[in-house]
Amino acid sequence: MLLRRHCSDKGCMKGMRLTGAAALLLLIIAPAADAQDKEPQRRAMRMIAGAEAKHVRSRQNLIKILRDQPNFWTELQAIAKRLKTEPAWLLNVMASESLFDPKARNGLPGQTASGLLQFIESTAQSMGTTTEAIRRMSPVEQLRLIEKYLTPFRGRLGSLADVYLAVFRGFIIEGGEASVIAPLDNSNKEWRIYSLNRWLDFNGDGKITKGELALAALTIGRFQPVAAGPSKSLNRNSTDGPDRKSETRRTRSIYVRSLNGQK
């Protein structure tokens, strides 16, 4: 099924075919799958089916935003330019986190993640606001808050994986798509992060990688940069060499499982 294209005089947000998302997911799953064990493939297809429903919902919500606030797309483009990143990558992350519902709130007990990017309460307060206030903000107002959060990463948001990682962990981990982002060690904190986001472990190998994180956003958002580069990698800055250690510069982490991860 060819997905819709939403265009304006300022630019175009281009989708991808579901079959393309399925192929990418199966390529990630395949190396971990035993020849006699078809469960990884079955799990992948269940995830693809679930992503389709979420994609449809997210696109409906985005259409409503664009109808009610036509300047949303122009503002997004301007913010992406200032952050030196791609509007498509920001869209994919918002789609994965909140399905473009500006009033979204994580319904799990004790969780506070709210808004388009699912900021948790401590992160909201560090930016001078609250999650309750975020849920009352318009989508354009939330875009400006998203820019404020991502500004420390300006110039380092060179791939979909990096943009989502800045949101997911609050820091960027260098390396290729196989770089592990959770758990980073055997501490209780790291295993809690993994447990809350186990749905991102597509191949069920007990760890979440940069490639899996980017694919989670891509299968739901399905936006690609208008002028795609020569690399077909989800992590455009990926390397095939040994993974490098994470950057030391960090901000508050937004690792609480988003609404999109609830079962």
Overall geometric form: globular
Assess the beta-strand content as a share of residues: under 5%
Query: Counting H and I runs of at least 4 residues, what is the number of helices?
Result: 10
Overall average residue pLDDT: 80
Helix content: 40-55%
Low-confidence stretches: 1-19, 238-263
How many strand segments?
A: 4
What features would you describe in this structure?
- The two termini are 25 Å apart.
- The chain has helices spanning 18-29, 39-68, 71-83, 87-98, 121-126, 131-136, 139-150, 160-168, 188-196, 210-221, and strands at residues 6-8, 11-13, 180-182, 208-209.
- A hairpin with a 2-residue loop joins β1 (6-8) and β2 (11-13).
- It has one domain (12-261).
- Helices cover 46% and strands 4% of the residues.
- It is mainly alpha-helical and 263 residues long.
- The chain is built from 10 helices and 4 strands, in the order ββααααααααβαβα.
- The chain has a two-stranded antiparallel ribbon with strand order 1-2.
- The radius of gyration is 17 Å and the shape is globular.
SSE inventory with pairings:
Layout: E1 6-8, E2 11-13, H1 18-29, H2 39-68, H3 71-83, H4 87-98, H5 121-126, H6 131-136, H7 139-150, H8 160-168, E3 180-182, H9 188-196, E4 208-209, H10 210-221
Antiparallel strand pairs: 1-2, 3-4
Helix pairs in contact: 1-2, 1-10, 2-10, 3-7, 4-8, 4-10, 8-10
